[in-house]
Write a structure and sequence with these properties.
The chain is α/β, with parallel strands linked by helices. Helices cover 34% and strands 23% of the residues. β17 and β18 form a beta hairpin. The protein is globular and about 65 Å long. The structure holds flavin-adenine dinucleotide. The site of flavin-adenine dinucleotide has 43 residues, from α2, α3, β12, β16 and α11.
Length: 428
């Protein structure tokens, strides 16, 4: 099969009738206009509509088009910052609340999938953090102690000699296993969430680009490619695709490409030899690899590969890098066919934490730093509740999303950051 440069998930979900019903002309008025039809926007829309608000989701492409349908489908505990780092930065109490939010987010996804009958294969597979160097295993040991001592969160360590029960690779220097994490099919999940939002009464408008936002008396005028929408409140849910329509948010977050390839389906024994218990995996490097098996036993192998926003050119170059990565981790797969290569943008704030709040009267939730499957779903729900006037459950309300100096949205500094991370991966 020739290489397809679209997500494997899109083909896997093709023609299954799961795409949510959407309109192309948005209504002229709504209580809340949500910009962006990914997990954040759809989860907020579902909660708002269930709470009795009229809500329209304005999506430039189609529902789920962004990172939400392209990701690795790893539903992970924790975030980009580990427990030890969270405590160092925020102290025990606040760090514990942020860690707790990551567990609540997975519980939320589990309940949502069950309540809405979303057929996306969600399962608590557990995740493995794989030590890329001996010194990284020492850090994983410290992380295990901190998680258990400070947060009462039990995880297991597997030394290098024991890791073959979990991974058919000698590349790593031991593993940390967290059984609370899970996996799902992201395209089926985001579409199912879209259908749930629409069933609750939200209007989903596709192929509608928001062009600008203006305050008008007690409301917002949202100018779109299909005419204006007047809304009492606006929630921006554009994450790694935040564009010039939202300049004040765009200068606060950085889009970074994340890249994935999918092999041809493997034999049952071939797949079991790689990941005998079907866990999802990421390693401890800055230029990390993350991988898992699909339901039809493909190895889905992703990574940062290049430190730029994703483009067609960078996707092709990244595919070659990831192919070498597969051989490095699983040498027996040296000759396997790669059938898919794709990419999408993840979104970073400078502190590498998610952010949700209000800026100039506009609500937003973004900056999941590659850990958004659970957290975007959860924060969408939290922001939906907030806009309904319900108690504020936002775990990130105290964090300010700061503008990045000398930056308007074109991340000219990413190659330098990438170089810095490469040097760190080499030295540390
Ligand atoms: C390749 C890849 C792998 C990943 N793997 C994982 C993983 O395994 N586990 C994990 O937890 N996270 C992962 N992530 C991150 C996760 O997918 C995201 O954090 C999450 O999907 C963010 O959802 P969102 O709804 O906030 O943003 P998105 O899903 O990106 O949606 C934003 C939407 O906003 C729309 N938009 C932007 N501007 C406008 C405008 N002006 N008008 C109208 N619409 C607009 C875009 O078209 C887009 O559809 C991965 C991401 C990528 C790219």
């Amino acid at each position: 099969m020739p290489l397809r440069e679209t997500p494997y998930w899109w083909d896997a979900a093709e023609d299954d009738g799961s795409a949510p019903l959407a309109v192309e002309v948005p209504p002229v008025r709504a209580d809340v206009a949500v910009i962006g039809g990914g997990l954040t926007g759809l989860s907020a829309a579902r909660t708002l509509a269930r709470g009795g608000a009229s809500v329209v989701v304005l999506e430039k492409h189609w529902i789920g088009w962004g990172a939400s349908s392209r990701n690795g489908g790893q539903v992970l505990t924790g975030g980009k910052l580990g427990a030890t780092e969270l405590i160092r930065r925020f102290g025990r109490e606040r760090a514990s609340a942020l860690h707790r939010a990551s567990l609540d987010a997975i519980d939320f996804v589990e309940r949502l999938v069950a309540d809405e009958g979303i057929d996306c294969g969600f399962r608590r597979t557990g995740h493995l953090a794989a030590a890329a160097k001996p010194s990284h295993f020492v850090e994983l040991q410290r992380e295990q102690e901190t998680l258990e001592r400070e947060f009462g969160h039990r995880v297991r360590l597997l030394r290098r000699d024991d890791q073959h029960s979990e991974i058919g690779s000698d590349r790593y220097h031991g593993l940390l296993l967290d059984e609370k994490s899970g996996a799902l099919d992201p395209t089926r999940y985001v579409r199912g969430l879209g259908r749930a939002a629409a069933r609750a009464g939200a209007v989903l408008a596709e192929d509608v680009q928001v062009l600008r936002l203006q305050r008008e008396a007690a409301a917002f005028r949202v100018d779109t490619s299909r005419g204006p929408v007047v809304a009492r409140d606006v929630l921006v849910a554009t994450n790694g695709y935040t564009d010039g329509a939202l300049p004040s948010l765009r200068r606060r977050v950085v889009p970074v490409g994340s890249y994935v390839v999918a092999t041809a389906p493997l034999s049952e024994s071939g797949a079991a030899a790689l990941l005998p218990r079907g866990r999802v995996v990421f390693d401890t490097k800055n230029f990390l690899y993350y991988f898992r098996l699909s339901a039809d036993r493909r190895l889905l192998f992703g990574g940062r590969a290049r430190f730029t926003p994703a483009t067609e050119g960078s996707t092709r170059a990244a595919a070659a890098i990831l192919r070498r990565g597969i051989t490095e981790v699983f040498p027996a797969l040296g000759a396997v066919d790669i059938e898919y290569a794709w990419s999408g943008n993840v979104c970073f704030a400078t502190d590498r934490l998610p952010h949700a709040g209000r800026l100039n009267g506009v609500h937003y939730a973004m900056g999941y730093a590659g850990h958004g499957v659970a957290m975007a779903s959860f924060l969408g729900d939290v922001m939906g509740d907030l806009l309904l006037g319900r108690p504020d459950r936002n775990p990130y309300s105290e964090r300010l999303l700061r503008p990045i100096p000398l930056y308007e949205g074109r991340p000219w500094f990413l190659p330098l950051v990438g170089l810095w991370y490469k040097v760190r991966d080499f030295l540390l």
